[in-house]
Amino acid sequence: MDNLILVTGGAGFIGSHTCVALSAAGYRPLILDNLNNSDVRVLERLAKITGRPPSFIKGDVRDRTLLDRIFREHNISGVMHFAGLKAVGDSVTDPILYYGNNVTGALVLAEAMQAAAVKTLIFSSSATVYGTPERSPIPESAPCRPANPYGRSKRMVEQMLADLQHSQPDWRISLLRYFNPVGAHQSGLIGEHPLGNPNNLMPLVSQVAVGVRDQLAVHGNDYPTHDGTGIRDYVHVMDLAEGHVAALRHAASGPGLVTLNLSTGQGASVLDVVKAFERASGQRIAYEVGPRRPGDVAAYWGDPSLAQVTLGWRARRGMDQMCADTWRWQQQNPQGYESDGAL
Predict the structure, then answer these.
(1) What is the pLDDT of residue 147?
(2) Percentage of the chain lying above the pLDDT 70 cut
(3) How far apart are alpha carbons 72 and 53 in whole angstroms?
(4) CB distance 183 to 237 below 8 Å
(5) Which of 65, 175, 282, 299 is most buried when burial is the number of CB atoms within 10 A of its CB?
(6) Which of 53, 58, 22 is nearest to 38 (CA)?
(7) In the chain, how long is the greatest CA-to-CA distance?
(8) Among 91-100, 192-201, 257-266, whose mean pLDDT is lowest?
(9) Quick one: pLDDT at residue 2?
(10) Rounded to whole angstroms, how far apart are CA atoms 327 and 48?
(11) Does the structure show a pLDDT above 90 at 194?
(12) Any idea which residues carry the catalytic annotation?
């Protein structure tokens, strides 16, 4: 069997790092990306890291004609599906956009895969499918009550793929749920550069450290946690990338459907992250405490034990490395892929 893997959204944050992990494991990634939320210059960086430029096709995963041509012209053995929109706030403002991209995109991809008899799919899902958890660590068996259109779009795709695998048992499908991907490749050549205002903590902290922002807004310090700030599960993007490769290897062992958390199994508070970033960067992170945000919960993190048993995978990189790698990327690329220093 050929080792060519179609990676939809492969120029994005998680997708690009997964292309590095795929290359290191002996696979050949073929990137399909419409570049709506990514930068074509990531391809040059990937070539520097892996030693060969990745194959790239600009296009949308909802374009069935294009997908049919790709499967016809390339001997693809499996698909990793990252392409989709991911900002919770935007999904509330424009739910139709999110359902159109995330649900329709996965449906058209599954149709094209079925027509081409390519039946190995690793789907990039999200811990947002759990909604507000009853307890932590959260197991895969926890109720799924997504609280926003983004989370609901991910859950709809999970249900669709589960129904597909049930109806056609020769499919090999992995649904991978994760929480807060952070960090960057240790080279500093690729990392996260959010367009507009970041929605997540780590890019905000790193922007304060590098001087792009004056201070960090901390939303509440009166939660029932060890320092009063909210606790979340952060996982290094390269651990995530290696988890996807582990899922691909597992799929080769036989057909079936697996649903797995990719997480560290422990949480870190907002101030834990701030202190770790101060250690990594040598910079003081100024912050101001404000009121809680509506809907925020005090603490949640995932239970990764099933992924460890099923895939032989575990997160190996701790918070100090997450911060050190983020800082290296931020320093070398203050303007993201528009920076010249790393090229």
Answers:
(1) 93
(2) 98
(3) 22
(4) yes
(5) 175
(6) 58
(7) 57
(8) 192-201
(9) 65
(10) 20
(11) no
(12) 150
**Euclidean distance between CA atoms 150 and 146, whole angstroms:** 8
Name the token pair of 325: 């790698």
Mean pLDDT check: name the lowest of 24-28, 89-93, 263-267, 306-310: 89-93
From 36, 92, 25, 21, select the one nearest 236 (Cα to Cα).
21
Helix 201-210 and helix 319-332, axial crossing angle in degrees, nearest 10: 50
Which residue is it, tokens 């947002």? 128
Which residue reads 């060890």 in tokens?
226
Mean pLDDT, the chain, rounded, equals: 95
CB of 170 closer than 8 Å to CB of 119: yes
- Residue 281 is encoded by which pair of tokens? 């960067």
Domains of the chain listed by start with CATH number = 4-183+234-263+301-316 (3.40.50.720)
The tokens describing 161, both together, are: 């793929």
- Please give the Cα distance from 331 to 302 (Å, whole number): 31
Nearest to 300 by CA among 249, 230, 239: 230
Give kind and range of the element (H or E) at residue 123.
strand 120-124
Q: How far apart are CA 325 and CA 20, in angstroms?
A: 15
Pairing status of strand 231-232 against strand 268-269: antiparallel
The full 3-state SS of 251-280, as one line of letters, equals: HCCCCEEEEEEECCCCCEEHHHHHHHHHHH
